[in-house]
Amino acid sequence: MTACAIEGGSAGAAATADPEAEPEPEEPGEPGKSGKPAGADAENGEAGEEYGGTGEAGEAGRADEAEAPSPRPDARSGADDAPPPGCFTLTADGAYAARITAAPGPPGERAWYPERWTLDGPEPYAVPLPLDQPEEPDSEVAPLADGRVLIRRRVADRQMFSLLYPTGPGTGELLLGAVGCAEMSLLPPSPDGRCVYALAAGEDHTSLWRVAGGAFGPEEVARIPGRCSGGVWLDRAGRMLALDRREPGGGPVKAVAVDLGRQGEVTPLLQIAPGSNDRLLLADADSGLLLLRSDAPGHDRLGWGVLGSCLPVRFPECLRLPDVTVTPFAVQPGQMLMPESCAVALRIDGAPGSWVGVWRPAGRQLHQFAAPLGWVPGAGYWSRDGVLRLPYANGATPCGVALLDAPEDVEPSSVTGRTGGGEDGREPSAADTAPAVCKPVPLGQAPLHGAARPD
Q1: Which residues, in sequence order, are CB contacts of 93 under 8 Å at separation 6+?
Q2: pLDDT tens digit sequence for 349-403
């Protein structure tokens, strides 16, 4: 992929509100309620300053950058019994989710068990999948398209894999097998809905294992030189996988593409500058939009590009907020050949907690919203028509999905009444406009398009 960089911009403000509390279902398996988060958005203008070069090993320079203070929502996204971070996993189509959660009890004495969420019906509901023995909190789960849940357990120096599924009042378990290694991490479920892969990093190579969906249990499908991490799917067939790799002899981290249809053939994917660390965070198969993090501008910045394009990578200034970390977690699907129009959901982590950002490459504005109470930060998915669905659970709603319509981007000059840029040549910011307030909408009363299952 070819790359250089563009940057500039300003920051804005946001207000906060929580979804209305919903009554708790009578039974664990009954559908829960959900609300649409209320909140105000902050819109940030962006101007551009270009530097760098193109090609697999482009050049990058530094630009003078000034950070403006950015007021943030009073983000409350957790609950006392929230699962460990990173344990809520969605299928590629958003139909199912799974997590490791804890039964009520004193801290340190709670029993952990898997839980599957069904999200493609008129209302979401959760099904607990406990077995006779509690799970360890560091176990990992991944849902499949048929409703079963893969679980990875560490037993001594081995990794054990099983499929869990509801059976009457209990939980069924299908043992898949074990892999003899001390450390292993699951990758996001394959877009085909059948397979789950895992990484096992060694001293000079990384093994890629198919731990579900194979014919004979876990099997090693590729051995990649270097140490790999990450994991982003580049297509809908589950053949092209992007990994972040550090060469065996050391050096920077570069994203590479692994072709599972050709015995794990590895090709370069991101090469922004010779010495830069270039990691792929998210990709959309329909539009080719790539979200990445690179220190080519001089320090870590969030950027975007297009798969297979000769255009430069851009590092929007509106995504650069002081004292917070911004991480993309979902891209609007269905925008064929229109990467600039895709709505991108971002997790924003700061001292107050975690909240939600929405941004489009073409809009150059970051809209910020308070997350629903009990949201697992970074969990969510888009419908094709631009409705963001945020799963959450709290004391009032054990299984809910908050709906958020992607806001429209407004030209800063039309909002502020100014017709031109400032003296420094930058576009005026829209942050000084009055914040808009969204009214919570229960999921059962939401528009039909908001409840539709994304393909």
Answers
A1: 120, 145, 193, 453, 454, 455
A2: 999 999 999 999 998 899 999 999 999 899 999 999 999 999 999 989 999 999 9
